[in-house]
Task: structure prediction
Amino acid sequence: MTDHKTDQQKTDRGSAFVTGASKGIGYEVARSLTAAGYAVTITSRNAEEIKEAAQKIGGQTRGVVCDVRDPAALEREVAAHTDAFGGLDVLFVNAGVGNFANIVDMTIEQWQDVIDINLSGAFYTIKAGIPALKKNGGYIFTLSSLAGKNPFAGGAAYNASKFGLNGLSEVLTLDLRQHDIKVTQIMPGSVATHFAGHTPSDADAWKIQPEDIAQLTVDLLNMPVRTLPSKVEVRPSKPPQK
Result:
């Protein structure tokens, strides 16, 4: 674990907890939140990657090893976050995986891996964060996908997880709005990340970039408190012609 602040300290903007943040969208969101004045905890299952990410982001960044499939670990790390920073203001639910196969060929293990991380892991993360968010109000972002409304061949587990995450996000809005907790589901199309074993390259220049989602997140946090963009679909503005 990398902990740049051991004394309790809360910035003017508050603090954020971002899952799946060693690289890609989670990393860029954490970096942008830090630049905007937030103290941030980032998580990953990979100890070396999260240590390196926290060091690169700098500021008041805590890098912790945490598996979102483990509710007890999430509760423990959110508690450690609130101890370090005096509360929790933003929860960015980002950790996710993709296994893609025809339903005939998909294994039970592949299905369980995607559902356990993308959907159950999101639920566990949110459950861990709600008590702290309720104290002063806050913001939950769920990183979904356009695959949460557009099914495609070979996407049984991934589509199911994102359709489910969208439904969960919509219910969260209804359940939490009277506690002054906003919920926004961000639904990107093609993003240039390492997702599903992809290596970003110059050929991905047309895609949404992780920093674009990070900018969107900061912009949403700056919206008037009375206004909630509850679902934001994000697409590449000019994909290649097929």
Summary: Helices lie at 24-35, 47-57, 71-85, 108-136, 156-176, 210-221. The longest helix spans residues 108-136. The chain is about 40% helix and 15% strand. The chain has one domain: 2-234.
